[in-house]
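job 3f2a | input accepted
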Amino acid sequence: MVLGAVGGVPVVERDVEPVEVLLAAGGNFADELLRLQNETPLLLRAEGESWMRLHPLAREVLAGRLKQLPPEELRSLSRKASAWYAERELFEEAAEQSFLAGDTEQAIALVERSSRLMTVQGRSNALLSWYERLSPSEMRERPTFWSPAAWALAMSDRHAESQALIDLILAQPGLPVDQRFEAALIGVTTASFADRFDIAEDRKS
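job 3f2a | predicted structure (205 res):
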């Protein structure tokens, strides 16, 4: 999330990286960050790390100030934070900020770029949180999100929804063999989690 702004630059939950922020902000912003790190307990950085971390009390103060901002200014900060994250290939965080800014299409496009990684990492809840933000018609327009969402649904109690996405994947004309194989594998997983071992065995054969 955006926690506030210093010098017109959003302070995001992942905190700040001095060199990168200097490029974004210009001026002596990086010097100011280093001064705060050296002279106050507000910014902390472990030896050998480039990330600075905000003291919890500083986070609380910034979060309180954030609630007082006009909506348009808050959206502007979220857009800046999204761009900041995206430049560092932190697409999931960038997507969240775009969504908070009201840029839903941009948010979904960004989360699609990290959905495979989220699947590999077993982060089903994170995938489902994005799945649930999409209407059925929006979901049908996002084929690259079908497999990750189907995996997440397969490993939950939402097996019928997983199967619906599998059917969408398999209905695509000219579906490559690897994608067809993955859809079948998701189907086996769905059947196994649903205790439908008869279906799982049929799909294996």
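job 3f2a | DSSP finds twelve helices and four strands in the chain.
job 3f2a | closed
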